Amino acid sequence: MKAKLFYNHLCLFVLQFFFFAVLCAQQITLPLSGVSFPKGVMPVNAGRIEFYAKLNGFSGYIPIGGVAPHFFMINDGAFSYHMGFNSNDGAGNGGLVGSVGNSFRTGTGIFGVYTYEQIYGAANVAEWHHYIFQWNKDGIPGINNGQEKLAIYIDGVLNSARWSVVTGSPGTFGSFSSCPTLNLNTTGNAGDVNGQVVMDEFKIFDGNDNLVLWNTLGSANEVMQSNTGLNGSLNENVNVQFVPGISGNAIIATPVFSIGNNEGCNVPSLSCSIKVSPAQTLPNHQPNTIYLGIGEQTLSLTGEATGGNGEYSYDWGAAGMGASISVSPNTTTTYTLTVKDEEGNTGTCTVTIYVVDVRCGKHSNKVTVCHHNKTLCLDYHAAIWHFAHGDHLGSCNDALPELFVKVYPNPTHNYFTVEIKSNNKTDKVTLRVMDLYSRVVEVRNNVSPDQIIQMGSNYRRGVYILKVTQAGVRK
C-alpha cells in the first residue's frame, strides 16, 4: 500500500493499491518564530521584500538540509515564499536561497559546499547588510531576458546566479489556501541553530511598488503596531531581545523552526471521513466488500465533515453529489469525497469498496464456499449455514484479499495511525515510509498482523509514501 502523506494536514486518497494522504499546516505548531505576520501581508503574484539584517555567531560551512537561518518563511504546503541559507535547497541551488510560488527557486550558485564567507567576504559576515527579495510571475525585467521569476540582492548587488523550477511541479503562483503566517527569523528545517540573527526595518511592496507593510521591529510595541499595513505578533516563548539597529532598535533572536500558525486567519482545519453501511455485507466476512452472488449488493457511503467554516458541500466526483450516495460496483472501486466549506477550504477522504465474484454453477446462481479445505458450490441457504460454522466464501485456493491497511485520522496535525488487518496470521508485516525523492524516512519490520501503529509524530511537513508488505503481498 502506498500512502502519500503531506505534513501537517492528512487527507487520505485510496486507490485499489494506493493510499494518498495530505498533511498541511493549518494549526498552531510550536515553537513559533519570534515575529509573525498574517498571510495577508504577502502580495502573491509580484512584489518585493526589503530589510536590514546581520548575522551573529555564523561562520564557516552552511549546513545542508535547511538547518540554517532563514530571514523569513511563509508556507501553506502548496506555495512557499522564503529566503535563507542552505547548501542544497533540493532543487540544485546553494548559498543564500529563496523560493516563490510552488516551484520557483534561486540561489547564490549550484548546490555544494558553501560558507558564509563566500557570500559576504571574510570580514563582512557579521556586518549589517541590506536585502531585497523580488518576485514576479511574469518575469523580472533585466534578468536573463525576463525569464526568471525571483531574485535576491545583497546591498544592491544581485546575489542570485542560479535558478530552477522544481521537477514535477506545474510552476504556478496562487493564493495561500490554509492558515500559515509570514515568520521572521526562522529556519528551513527542524534542528538546533547556534547563532543569532538581527533584523530591522522590514518592508513589503506590491507589484506596483506600493508599500503594503512597514514594521520597524524596534520593540514589542513596534512589532504589534506596524507603521504601514497589518500588525505583527510577538511570540514571548522565543528568546527575543531588542538591540541598536539601523534606525532605532532592531530585533535579535536565535532562529527556530516554524511551520506557521493560524493568527489572523483562524480557519479550523477541515477534515472528512466516510461511513460505509452496512459495514459487512455478510456476517464474519471482510468489511467494505461486496460478494457478487450473495449478500448486500448495494452500499451506502455517507460523508462526515468537521472543522472549516459555514456549510459544507460534498462532491464524490462521477459517483454523485451530496453527503450520502449509494454504490453498486461490479469491480473493486475507490470512491473519493471532497468536502468544501463556505470559504473554499477543502478536505478529502476516500474509501475502497472491494468486489469479489464468488458465483458458481451452470447458471451462476450458487456461490463457492471453502469447507475444511474443500471447495463447495452451494445455494444461498446452504452457504449461510456454512458461514455460521466458520467456513468462508470463495475457493479454498482463492487469493482473497489478505491484507487490509487503513490510515487515519484524516486530517492529522501530529501523527497518523496505521491499522493493519490480515488473514495471514503467521508472516510479519513491514512498513516503509519514503519521501518523494525515494529517500527512506522510516522502516518498521516484524510488525504483527492485526496491529494498530502510530507514526509520523516527528515528521516534517511534506509528502510521504507508505508501503506495506506481507509475504509478497504489497499494499
Summarize it.
This protein has 475 residues and is mainly beta.
Q: What's the helical proportion of residues?
A: under 10%
**Main sheet overview:** 10 strands, mixed
β-strand number: 39
End-to-end Cα distance, whole Å, is 3 Å
Rg over alpha carbons? 27 Å
| Number of helical segments with 4 or more residues | 3
Secondary-structure-based class equals mainly beta
Described by the principal axes of the CA atoms, the overall outline is elongated
Give structural notes:
It is a single chain. It is built from 3 helices and 39 strands. The chain is mostly beta strands and 475 residues long. Strand 16 and strand 17 form a beta hairpin.
Defining key terms:
ten-stranded mixed β-sheet, 45% strand, 475 residues, single chain, 3 helices, disordered N terminus, eight-stranded antiparallel β-sheet, mainly beta
Secondary structure elements and their pairing?
Layout: E1 2-6, E2 12-15, E3 18-21, E4 35-38, E5 46-56, E6 69-75, E7 80-86, E8 93-100, E9 104-107, E10 109-110, H1 116-120, E11 129-136, E12 150-154, E13 157-158, E14 162-165, E15 181-187, E16 196-206, E17 211-215, H2 220-224, E18 233-234, E19 241-244, E20 249-253, E21 256-257, E22 271-277, E23 289-292, E24 299-306, E25 313-315, E26 324-327, E27 333-340, E28 346-357, E29 359-360, E30 366-371, E31 374-378, H3 380-387, E32 392-393, E33 403-408, E34 416-422, E35 429-435, E36 440-447, E37 452-455, E38 463-470, E39 473-474
Parallel strand pairs: 1-3, 15-21, 23-28
Antiparallel strand pairs: 1-38, 2-3, 4-15, 4-18, 5-11, 5-16, 6-7, 6-15, 7-8, 8-9, 8-10, 9-14, 11-12, 12-13, 16-17, 16-20, 19-20, 22-24, 24-26, 25-27, 27-28, 29-30, 30-31, 30-32, 33-34, 34-37, 35-36, 35-38, 38-39
